[in-house]
Amino acid sequence: MTKKKILVTGGAGFIGGNFVQYMVKKYPNYDIYNLDLLTYAGDLTKHRDIETNENYYFIKGDISDREKIIQLFEKEKFDYVVHFAAESHVDRSITNPGIFVHTNIIGTQVLLDAAKQVGVIKFIHVSTDEVYGELDFDPNTFFTEETPLQPNSPYSASKASSDLLVRAYYETYGLPVNITRCSNNYGPYHFPEKLIPLTISRVLNEQKIPVYGDGKNIRDWLHVLDHCAAIDLVMHEGIKGEIYNVGGHNERTNLEVVKTIISTLGKSEDLIEFVTDRLGHDKRYAIDPTKLENLGWKPTYTFETGIAQTIQWYLDNKEWWEQIISGEYRNYFENQYNI
Ligand code: NAD
Ligand code: TYD
Fold first, then answer.
1. Which residues approach ligand 2 with their CB closer than 6 A?
2. Which of 21, 50, 169, 184 has fewest C-beta within 10 Å?
């Protein structure tokens, strides 16, 4: 069997980083190329243990740099593209939407053109359940792959736009694609601007935890390693042109999540500080993963086992997140919430 070349974009970030690790270790027979611009969210220290592996390569580059991306594809002739690179934080998209349009839409279109030009076995576009908008609090309602797209934030609107481009390249040019739409991920190497790692790091530092609004908004939590396994499955078995939702039925209110972390770490709920709500704050996300389950996927973590593993990881890897917090992130945080 010839060696397959897999291009992973955004492999220095949270989910892409976990996926790179998963693929390099699971498939010694594949060459994994990690293409990343190393924005504030990208960090290569997470790959220290694999950086000398023979099947791992890092390429620093911008997915929206058309000339360089086309040259790269012509040189390397990748078999698969797994596309994670994006601006990913909703709050940042509210204060600075432009970069989201540029990276998430233009960047995706450049990659699609490059993949079309050289021909790939599959282009997997990693999207989000946020493209469907929000659900109300009726626990019997879920996002399916047929739910209409109604994105509410500049972030989710940019992701929905990129999804439509991916779809169009399948319909118009026959580019073999899959789109995955997952719920909120959590786990090791999650950047501490997002709710779970932010809460863990702030509880450990005995700092206040900003809970937006009344804390009753619901997210459907997915452990990042279950997400990696889902993408692996879709990459190899997904039917071309199809969309797959990824979620493990783990709905929790934000307040429940924060309180679970506080009690696991044995600290006081006095750390909770209710702050002004996020603009356009989506009420609830919840995924119906039946289609992916029918393909053979099953999550291995419950929220209880996953959050316990994640908290332990942050306890064991304080050096990593302290290094992240001491950089640009901290300034951003102080400007945002001022507590
Ligand atoms: P992240 O912000 O942790 O990482 C994004 C990575 O992309 C970083 O390494 C960054 O350096 C890189 N990047 C940004 N702009 C780039 C550019 N122009 N060129 C090359 N690289 C660039 O994001 P994440 O949480 O790992 O999310 C990965 C993907 O999964 C995103 O597409 C996101 O929309 C999607 N997603 C995330 C979640 C979640 O809960 N985190 C949920 C659903 C979907
Ligand atoms: P986040 O981790 O930003 O993910 P997303 O907005 O993509 O769902 O936020 C998860 C939930 O937590 C969301 O309802 C907003 C809320 N939240 C807070 O209450 N406080 C915070 O400091 C952050 C970052 C998020």
1. 90, 184, 194-195, 198, 210-212, 217, 219, 254, 278
2. 50
* pLDDT given for residue 332 in this prediction: 56
Task: Out of 3.40.50.300, 3.40.50.720, 2.40.128.20, 1.25.40.10, select the CATH number for domain 4-187+221-250+288-302+330-337.
Answer: 3.40.50.720
Computed on alpha carbons and rounded to an integer, the radius of gyration of the chain in Å comes to: 19
Q: 333 Cβ partners below 8 Å, 6+ apart?
A: 193
Ligand 2 atom with minimal separation from the 281 CA: 14
Active-site residue list: 129-130, 155
Ligand 1 close to Cβ of residue 105 (< 6 A):
no
Summarised one tens digit per residue, pLDDT across range 66-109 is 999 999 999 999 999 999 999 999 999 999 999 999 999 999 99
Q: Does residue 42 have its Cβ closer than 6 Å to ligand 1? A: yes
Residue of 40, 66, 72, 84 with the most ligand 1 atoms within 8 Å of its CB, for mutation: 84
Label residue 172 exposed, middle or buried (CB < 10 Å: 0-12, 13-18, 19+).
Answer: exposed
* The pTM of the whole model exceeds 0.90: yes
Mean pLDDT of 258-279: 97
Residue 325's pLDDT band, with cuts at 50, 70 and 90, is confident
